[in-house]
Amino acid sequence: MPQPASESPSHSDVAARAERRWAIVMLGIIALLVAMVVFTGLHWAMMPPSRVETVDPATLQLSGEFTEANLGSAVEPDGSVTVRIVGQQYSFTPQCIVVPAGTPVTFRVTSADVIHGLMIMGTNINSMIEPGFISTFKTTFDKPGDHQMPCHEFCGTGHQAMWANVKVVEPSAFTQLADHARRLTCDL
Ligand code: CUA
User: Fold this and answer.
1) Which CATH superfamily does the domain covering 68-180 fall into?
2) What is the pLDDT of residues 13-35, one digit of tens each?
3) I need a labelling partner for 69 at 20 to 30 A (CA). Which of 14, 83, 92, 173 fits?
4) Quick one: signal sequence residues (predicted)?
């Protein structure tokens, strides 16, 4: 016995309409995702996320901000401190960094060879150090003390021996040191 003719077509009509509706929704979702991919691709290609600063790793030691004489802590005109560090297989230069407590400190760090990591223990400073790029981070150390600063990115056979120290001193002690040198490290 065949199905009643009056019900069957209307059921399949309903099903077809529902399928079409969902097909349109699906196509809409796909179109939206493609549009997002195209937009973010073009947009971020023109405007990279955050601030990207580049530097030529081949000429770090020869000229510019990361020459050896310019590494270490520098007092800025506004009283804040900028620390410049170069990482290389398998050490940081300088080996011991001195900064004042309670003062805004900006770290500017790059690599002379491969990718390294920089982490100052007891703080939330944790960054990759990449050749060709300058990693920048700002912090204020609450109180005097010593922090270890290991390289936390495997960078070769000497990786586990790559680390430096950060010595946080009283602002007055730092000011005394700063009177005697343009760039400070623990050795001064
Ligand atoms: Cu440098 Cu690990």
Assistant:
1) Cupredoxins -  blue copper proteins (2.60.40.420)
2) 899 999 999 999 999 999 999 99
3) 173
4) none
